[in-house]
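Quick one:
INPUT:
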């Protein structure tokens, strides 16, 4: 049986009702430190609160514990961000699918770090996506299906010096066994022709940014 984990990061939440809809599909909900604040806004409680907990109060920690959540506290001087710890915990739990919400916006360095976490080796067999309800971000290692609406924008950005053998299906500007380099912008602003697109690659790491015309309802 598939296990879906939703992780609340400590970025920004622009579309609360869309995030609520995503979180309601979760088998496990994790708050990465200050992500607990956004869960409270949606009147939700975490199954796991994890991090150095410098962005939550003692009262919030007590609330999480009283609701039956587990708290995993790490020292402030650690090598991983709170979101990385949450992702690794979700993988250890046996998640088949992980959706990270509230991970975009705010500090640029944190946003980029959050996106780069999609490439964690321990998550290579998991369907892992960042989704704020409007923009969905995923990493393609072999192939991925993207579900949306006709007219949604899809941008493909290499995260390795070259991505080889890119083939797309149901996009306005098709790629057929083509290569893209890290320095190229050719993959920006493609357009979905149907409600489902497929992107396949032969080697490399390809970042896919799906910008919906409409916020999830």
């Amino acid at each position: 049986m598939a296990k879906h984990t939703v992780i609340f990061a400590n970025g920004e939440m622009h579309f609360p009702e869309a995030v609520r809809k995503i979180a309601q599909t979760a088998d496990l909900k994790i708050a990465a430190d200050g992500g607990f604040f956004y869960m409270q806004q949606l009147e939700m409680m975490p199954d796991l609160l994890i991090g150095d907990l410098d962005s939550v109060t003692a009262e919030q920690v007590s609330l999480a514990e009283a609701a039956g959540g587990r708290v995993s506290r790490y020292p402030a001087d650690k090598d991983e961000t709170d979101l990385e710890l949450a992702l690794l915990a979700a993988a250890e739990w046996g998640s088949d699918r992980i959706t990270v919400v509230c991970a975009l916006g705010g500090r640029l360095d944190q946003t980029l770090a959050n996106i780069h976490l999609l490439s964690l080796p321990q998550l290579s067999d998991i369907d892992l996506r960042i989704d704020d309800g409007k923009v969905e971000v995923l990493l393609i290692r072999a192939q991925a299906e993207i579900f949306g609406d006709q007219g949604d924008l899809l941008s493909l950005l290499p995260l390795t010096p070259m991505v080889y053998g890119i083939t797309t299906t149901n996009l306005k500007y098709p790629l057929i066994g083509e290569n893209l380099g890290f320095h190229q912008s050719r993959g920006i602003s493609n357009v979905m022709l149907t409600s489902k697109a497929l992107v396949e690659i032969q080697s490399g790491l390809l970042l896919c940014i799906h910008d919906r015309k409409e916020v999830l309802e």
